[in-house]
Write a structure and sequence with these properties.
about 150 residues; alpha+beta; Elongation Factor Tu (Ef-tu), domain 3; seven-stranded antiparallel sheet; 7 strands; elongated; Oxidoreductase; Myoviridae_GpU; Phage_P2_GpU
Amino acid sequence: MMLSLGLFVFEINTAAYQQLQHVASQNWASNKRVGRRPAYQYLGPGEETITLNGTLYPEYTGGLFDLSMLREMASTGSAFALISGNGDTLGLWFIDQVSETQSVFIRNGSPRKIEFNLQLKRTDDNSIDQLGDLSPYVSTLLNQSLKATV
């Protein structure tokens, strides 16, 4: 396991990422002063984002189903616990954006290569009411998957 967002596990079989970028900003208020540089007051933590970039080869790794699951998670408007591969709890995060680029197609139009970008934003750890429940849409995705194979 590389990372876990709620019940979605990032690993070789799902959506393995090749790059993780973590940006944390701080909020500072500026007070202008005559003849001097502005004075600043620390207001607390600002926005914190994690961006995951990866390339999937559906014949060997995860594929469109995994990206559909992430899009479904994003559409719930919920935050999910983010846990690193070594077990560190990184707080509650919501999916802000999922993008993909498909290429190298086979005859039926299925991509052999999928590049994806996933942007997560951190929310306050005390917003437990936003915590996401994956069960309603996991069953929907599984049913869609079963219909596609029949």
